[in-house]
Amino acid sequence: MPFLPVGGQAVIEGVMMRSPSRVAVAVRRPDGSLAFLERGYVSLTRRVKPLGWPVLRGAISLFETLYLGITALNFSADEAAREEEKDQRPGKASAVHGSVQLLTIALSVTLGVFLFVVLPARLTAWLRFDGRVAFGLVDGLFRLLAFVGYLLLISQWKEMRRVLGFHGAEHKAIHALERRAPLSPESVQSFSRLHPRCGTSFLFLVVVVSIVVFTFIGKPHGVGDHLLRVACMPLIAGVAFEFIRLSGKYGERPLVRWLVWPGLQFQRLTTREPDLAMCEVAIAALERVRGDEAVVKLERAETPAAVEVAFIQ
């Protein structure tokens, strides 16, 4: 079974799929038809050789994934609300929508830094854990609890249930492609909704790696120390990315399966079993990037190959 360089993301009423040189988004419109957004996209890690070095490529890929994900979400939101916006002036609606998106991103980043970097350290200091190792472990425990709480909140959010269903459909479609199974809704539905390259697993690894890195840095004593922790996040993301990359290539090996098991269990909170219509949308997006030369070559290969990893979110 070849390791295919295809990843994706669930969006509003749809799925984004990405190959080494193409991105496609398929969205179910209110009238039942499918809308598509397609474009070529080659990662900076392939265009600029130094950016493709281990660890560094993980940080670059993360930022690219966020950019593409936001683009896909904007497209899906526009298509899902198409009927509601018929009577609005397009220019004005677009400007307001863009401003809201920028504000949302800024608030999300600020809240993320506070919940996962600043607050755990403050709580640990308040409990008077001063030793380097003790502080690092308790600080990490609070960060893990914040992560679990975030996933529980997402999983119980009623409006997110369909998005989580499309997340499951995206995983199933990629499983089917990797196993050379027919890309029909019924065939795709038979596969697991959990996948080792999921963004949920990546975030769990970020939490784990941050415990080691932040323990090495030590207890923060001021704004400068907190900023140092934030500055280390690209490094932490890069290390987590390398593990995700290896788990995609060697996922069938017992040791690797044991190591990725915790991340797979967290995916039970961020995915739901999709219906056949959701699988159909995931297949439609996947077919648009399946023609990528790199994917075709590996899909026909008899042995695994070392290729660029793509996040599945």
Topology at a glance:
Elements: E1 7-11, E2 14-18, E3 22-28, E4 34-40, H1 44-47, H2 56-80, H3 90-126, H4 132-156, H5 161-178, H6 185-189, H7 199-217, H8 223-231, H9 233-249, H10 254-270, H11 276-290, H12 293-299
Antiparallel strand pairs: 1-2, 2-3, 3-4
Overall description:
It contains twelve helices and four strands. The protein has 313 residues and is α+β, with helices and mostly antiparallel strands. The chain has one domain. Strands 1-2-3-4 form a four-stranded antiparallel sheet.
List the main descriptive attributes of the protein structure presented here.
single chain, 313 residues, alpha+beta, four-stranded antiparallel sheet, 63% helix
Strand order of the largest sheet: 1-2-3-4
Level of helix content?
Answer: 55-70%
**How many structural domains in the coordinates?**
1
List how many beta strands DSSP finds: 4
Overall structural class, as computed from helix and strand content, comes to: alpha+beta
Q: What is the compact description of this entry?
A:
By secondary structure, the protein is an alpha+beta fold.
